[in-house]
Amino acid sequence: MSQSQEERSIRCLVAKVGLDGHDRGAHVIARAFRDAGFEVIYSGLHKAPDEIVQAAVQEDVDVIGISILSGAHNTLVPKVVDGLKEYDAFEDTLILVGGVVPDEDKAHLKELGVAEVFGPGTSMAETVEFVRKNAPER
Amino acid sequence: MTLSTEELLEGILEGNHRALARAITKIENRQDGYREIVSGLYEHTGSADVIGITGSPGAGKSTLVDKMAKTYRDQGLTVGIVAIDPSSPYTGGAVLGDRIRMASNVGDMDVFFRSMSARGSLGGLSTATADAVKALDAFGKDKVIIETVGAGQNEIDIVQAADTVAVLVPPESGDNVQMLKAGILEIADVFAVNKADMDGADRTVQELEEMVHMDDGHVSVPAGHHGMDVEADVDMPETGENADVDMTDTGDNADVDMTDTGDNADVDKTDEGGNAADAPEPWETPVLETVATTGEGVDAFLDTLQAHANWLRDTGRIEAKRRQRTAEEIRTLLREDAGELVERELATHGGVDALAGRVLDGETDPYTIADEVLEPVEACLDAES
């Protein structure tokens, strides 16, 4: 009987990792996700990878959007990925990276398990659409 | 990784965080199997103290909850938190921001913090919250805190899933007429005037106390023991004033003052606990002062919550409260399930749109339709009785 009552909502964690104080982009994305009907948990600034993992696991999010504009993505993203693996949360979490990432780093991030890297100029609609299409089935 | 209902249940009882998180998602989404999970958890619940924190937006709830969790952790207790934020009535989307304030418990998995949005459909939110609290309780958390914006009836329902309810009131939140009309104040077991270092805190404390004591006028209160309480209460605003004055001078002095106040409050509370065991005393809602950002007054606040929990136990009111809550739970569940059945019945009558069309065409009216749709149900009930 409960099937028909089911109301699933895509849960996203918008995360700022490391010493990077630029959160305009994260705010804009959080808002766009909210307006798309997602439930958005915003991490706040200057979070350690561990905190992001803790939040992702406890909140049981479908999507993690990591916003990095500091250039430290090659250091920070692997730590988040490892942490998720530790809690068996890696496989059914869609990991996105947004920010300033050089093309030559994108392949590496994708190898790690990042589903997509969104650079400057990406439209909100594109990001929202990507999440809708790729949010893990649970 | 999809865990079966049994695996989730097992995981929760074994202390697996991932299983707990996934189970709460299922509960929230009312996904297949959530009923089995909750009924499986039931026998393991009842050991946690459930505390509800509510108050207007910006009152400092999340910051206080963070400090509460930290203090409990320092005492070696484990903490579960469910924080509810509003969701958009148009898109259903939400930004859940309470987690940002949880700065004191970074990386500590024994503080399990879960944000929930007020998905606002079916009135099922209070059920989902209560069930999430059960999951945290069964998981083995010593203290479970429900945090919610106190803006409407829905929130009051949620908070009533708690044994002890604290209402946070920021300074300058209106004159005593506001205090009278705000229905949310009636559910408080404890008041905390947060941001007590701000101007106007004393006045807010006084007004709250006036209100609390006005309430006493209706309930006949035995003298003696309460005299002491009143004294303690009256002392508070003075201390608050001193603290304010000190604040402007030197921060350090103010801290020392506050700690003193905390200790005094402790002593009072212990006394009260002792007396409560002798004769069932009514609970007089205390008005406390806290500064959540610095943690001032938090110890006294937690002691008061504990005193209330003890009082509930000593007077046996906890059973009455839980019985009432469970009864309400059964009713809500039945209403939801009956609603489902009615939806099915509606479908066999051609769906609600077609019926609405008939009303608009002037063929019939909503009351007649309701009677028609429920006719078979009534027939069944009549046959039973």
Structure notes:
The complex is a heterodimer of chains A (138) and B (385). By secondary structure, chain A is α/β, with parallel strands linked by helices. Chain A has five helices and five strands, in the order E-H-E-H-E-H-E-H-E-H. Chain A has a five-stranded parallel β-sheet, with helices on both faces. Mean pLDDT of chain A is 90; it is low at 1-5. Chain B is α/β, with parallel strands linked by helices. Chain B has helices at residues 5-14, 17-29, 34-42, 61-74, 125-139, 153-159, 176-181, 201-218, 225-249, 251-278, 298-314, 317-348, 351-360, 366-384; strands spanning 49-55, 79-86, 94-96, 111-118, 143-149, 164-169, 190-193, 287-289. Chain B has a seven-stranded parallel β-sheet, sandwiched between helices. In chain B, strand 6, helix 7 (176-181) and strand 7 (190-193) form a beta-alpha-beta unit. The N and C termini of chain B lie far apart (49 Å). Strand 2 (39-42) of chain A pairs parallel with strand 3 of chain B, so a sheet runs across the interface.
What's the shape of chain B? globular
CATH architecture of the largest domain in chain B: 3-Layer(aba) Sandwich
The first-level CATH class name of the largest domain in chain B: Alpha Beta
Instruction: Write down the overall mean pLDDT of chain A.
Output: 90
Structural class determined from secondary elements of chain A: alpha/beta
How much of the polypeptide of chain A forms β-strand, as a percent range? 15-25%
CA(first)-CA(last) distance of chain A:
19 Å
The side-by-side strand order for the widest beta sheet of chain A comes to: 2-1-3-4-5
Q: Please identify the top-level CATH class of chain A.
A: Alpha Beta
Bin the helical content of chain B: 55-70%
Give start-end ranges of low-pLDDT stretches of chain B: 218-277
Number of helices of chain A: 5
Strand order of the largest sheet of chain B: 4-2-5-1-6-7-8
CATH architecture of chain A: 3-Layer(aba) Sandwich
Q: Roughly how much helix do the residues of chain A carry, as a percent range? A: 40-55%
Please report the two chains with the greatest interface, counting residues with C-beta closer than 8 angstroms to the partner's C-beta.
A-B, 39 and 41 residues
Tell me the number of strands of chain A.
5
The run of helices and strands of chain A is: EHEHEHEHEH
Beta-strand content bin of chain B: 5-15%
Q: Which structural class best describes the helix and strand composition of chain B?
A: alpha/beta
